[in-house]
Predict the structure of Histidine--tRNA ligase.
Amino acid sequence: MPRRARILSRAAGLRAYFEEAGARPVETPVLQPAETLLDLYGEDIRGRAYVTWDALRGELMLRPDFTVPVVQMHMTHGAEPARYTYSGEVFRRQEHDPDRDNEYIQVGYEVFDRADPAAADAEVFTLIAGTLSGLHLRAATGDIGILMAAVAGLETTGARKSALMRHIWRPRRFRALLDRYSGRAPVPGARAALLASADPMAGAGPQIGLRSRADIEARIEALRADAAAPPISEREMTALEALLAVRETLPFALEHLRDVAVDLPQITPALDRLEARIAALAARGVDVEHLEFEASYGRTSMEYYDGFVFGFYAATRADLPPVATGGRYDALTRALGDGSEIPAVGGVLRPGVMLTLEEAAQ
């Protein structure tokens, strides 16, 4: 049987497995409106997606994933609670890694249920883990919500917290902002000179570009306000660094994070949710004593997740993408819900990678 046919057959089997678990199969268009994705992720998405143009429908993107259209569908006319499954092609540009597939089959399982978020997290994780038995994979977990709670509660300006929130998924930029806001890094010379000038617009050349003079002046005032704000304290910076460094098995990670919460008490509700999730996973038979937890996990590839995140990897094949990933995306339902929201969690699998591992083991 040709390889593509075997991948499609495996995808059909995975979708049937999720249907047996109570999911309703759904389809989404391959061409997605670019406006929605750009509103969610900004212009960065153009570097990862294939963009085209239609005279009637405007700018479109080849489907980079299923989650966004499934959330849109559910928030428009879905009943509660709901479970969905799907399979089909997704398209990702791989200009920085030409060995990775830019078109592949994805199978997913999504849960929209407000009754017990911890139980839903455990349900998705264990169902996906059940499809992967025998592949000898490494499981990793994290929780973006803990870092988000830490940032939201910092004793600094709203503008600084908003900037940090936007860059949580860009660790280098996030770190650079923290260093600047804490005073650990000096203000760039050009900015310092601009702020020191009584009239930064004096002697400016002709206006070029889309920004108006008022926009530029507002930006300068925002920079002045930021420069006048007190630095983030060393106490909070040390606690944030301790949080980001946590990499333990789940029970020890929770214990360590409880210690961090002494200096960052705003993360306590997120830690209570983590504790409930650990109990829910254990109730479903997961060996939580040996399940890895990393506080920074998911920060480079999971932009719409805002809570629990997980992935399954081939420990001996670093050249392969993750076999499965997933997580909680409550904020995405709020962004696409036109005023309504519902707790939601899901995960996706790559049947092609599963077959590659099975073939290598034969």
